[in-house]
Amino acid sequence: MIRHLFRKLGYGFLILMGINVLTFVLFFKVNTPDDMARMQLGTRRITPEAVEKWKALRGYDQPLFFNESKSGLDQVTQTLFFKTSSQMMRFDFGRSDAGRDINEEILFRAGPSLALALPSFAVGMGLSILIALGLAFFRGSYLDFWGTVICVVLMSISALFFIVAGQFVLSKLLQWLPVSGFSAGSDAWRFLLMPISIAVLSGLGGQVRFTRAVFLEEIDKDYVRTAKAKGLSDVQTLMKHVLPNALIPIISSSVALIPLLFMGSLISESFFSIPGLGAYLIGAIGSQDFAIVRTMVFVGSVLYIVGLILTDLCYAWADPRIRLS
């Protein structure tokens, strides 16, 4: 187990370094620091002195990969790539192009993102498994047919429709919930109830169809017929045999959602004005703040690699036959 984890961590570090190199080239080669300075300062009447001052304040005045003015190891270490990469690996993200501390912003905005994402993930996953089990139990019946139809309808409707419809009905017409905003106090549920409900509803169709397909695939296997031959009921077979074996693909499909649990929902946070990490990234893209965008790409990569490692551990938990060596 320990050897397996260290091997996974080694692979993850190599992947992270590759992503770091790729994002650096995209941000600082395609858009040079001079281009970034002009975009932030404006294109009219910008003097070379103003551009150099802007770069010096943010550390962008150093060479990108190789410093010819230095000697020895300093030719590599006294570069923008080494400086920014070493800071990233220490999780010291520095300051944004606007001058604000990125670490403080991430810590401040992680709370609202988790408050929205964790309940959405937990409720959505629980409901999808429960409904899929019911459809699989009544497979071939009218309940299974119409349940599948409803799932297809939900998959065909954009999440934006649910957001707009929810805001119009629940906020404008019924005035039960606020249209947007966020409160960190005891009233937080009033601002989170609608986006959480919409996030669960918009993703329920696809999750139920996938989980139902996994259950139906397991139901047709030999071990299920053996369990029934021993006298187990359909409910006992589903809960004791089908569900544990179906957890493997369900866990695999959930890995892609792990970064979203921390980085927030880009659409929901923007429409509901929730000050989370998703809205933070959207704002950075709009203002062309490359320091924030590059940081969020790095954080998302770290979270995805961590999710892959946790998935292997969950495999061993869900199926004791799996041994990580």
Note the main attributes of this structure:
mainly alpha; 74% helix; 2 domains; single chain; 325 residues; MetI-like fold
Extract low-pLDDT stretches: none
Q: By CATH's scheme, which homologous superfamily of the largest domain applies?
A: MetI-like
How many helices in DSSP terms? 15
Oligomer: single chain
Quantity of strands, as a count = 0
CATH class of the largest domain: Mainly Alpha
Task: Summarize the amount of helix as a percent range.
Answer: over 70%
H and E string: HHHHHHHHHHHHHHH
Would you tell me the overall average pLDDT? 80
Radius of gyration: 25 Å
What is the terminal separation in angstroms?
A: 5 Å
**Strand portion:** under 5%
Briefly note the CATH topology name of the largest domain. MetI-like fold
Q: What would you say the CATH architecture of the largest domain is? A: Orthogonal Bundle
Structural class: mainly alpha
> What composes the largest sheet?
none
